């Protein structure tokens, strides 16, 4: 951050954490928190606009995952994909999506699987249309470098691994 006569320090939610040897990490954590909340609010409202009100963010993500590449997914695959530690969260969301007729369950050996229904696929297509009209068009107008955005996404995935490792270490303290 550039210094100026009006410098107030990094933008963080907890100044005591930014006092350490890497204040930029505190800045990133605050940005992640704000962006994460905005993203969750967006996907819930976009899905409502697409015709499926009342879903929570995990429900929306699982519906899109079920629709991904038109292949059935195991509940374990979905939990790993989204780094969800508690498989009951996935199970609950799947039951909700089933009750709405958006996914159907099956079996692959002993594992429960889900796949999107025709109605679920229709809702996902409508979500895509709403997303393109409201979000993608606005973000495109920012003229961001798509390679830089992709590199940022890769960095976020790498950092998630660091947070996972730190969480495992914290458990052993």
Shape: globular
Sequence of secondary-structure elements: HHHEHHEEHH
Low-confidence segments: none
Tell me the major beta sheet.
Answer: 3 strands, antiparallel
User: Quick one: how many beta strands?
Assistant: 3
Number of helices: 7
- The whole-angstrom Rg is 19 Å
Indicate the multimeric state. single chain
How much helical structure, as a percent, in the residues?
Answer: 55-70%
Structure notes:
The protein is mainly α and 173 residues long. It has helices at residues 15-18, 23-50, 57-67, 75-81, 87-99, 118-140, 146-171, and strands spanning 73-74, 103-108, 111-116. α2 crosses α6 (118-140), α3 packs across α5 (87-99) and α4 crosses α5 (87-99). 65% of the residues lie in helices and 8% in strands. It has 7 helices and 3 strands, in the order αααβααββαα. It is globular and about 60 Å long. The longest helix has 28 residues, at 23-50. It has a 3-stranded antiparallel β-sheet with strand order 1-3-2. The two termini are 34 Å apart.
């Amino acid at each position: 951050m550039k210094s100026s006569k009006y410098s107030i320090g990094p933008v963080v939610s907890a100044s005591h954490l930014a006092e350490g040897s890497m204040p930029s990490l505190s800045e990133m954590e605050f940005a992640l928190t704000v962006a994460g909340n905005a993203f969750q609010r967006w996907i819930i409202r976009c899905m409502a606009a697409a015709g499926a009100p009342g879903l929570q963010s995990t429900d929306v993500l699982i519906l899109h995952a079920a629709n991904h590449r038109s292949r059935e997914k195991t509940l374990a695959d979905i939990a790993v994909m989204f780094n969800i530690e508690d498989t009951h969260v996935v199970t609950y969301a799947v039951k909700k999506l089933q009750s709405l007729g958006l996914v159907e369950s099956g079996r692959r050996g002993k594992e429960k699987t889900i796949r999107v229904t025709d109605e679920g696929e229709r809702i996902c297509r409508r979500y895509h249309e709403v997303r393109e009209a409201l979000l993608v068009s606005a973000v495109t107008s920012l003229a961001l470098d798509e390679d830089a955005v992709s590199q940022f996404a890769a960095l976020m995935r790498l950092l998630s691994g660091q947070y996972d490792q730190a969480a495992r270490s914290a458990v052993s303290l």
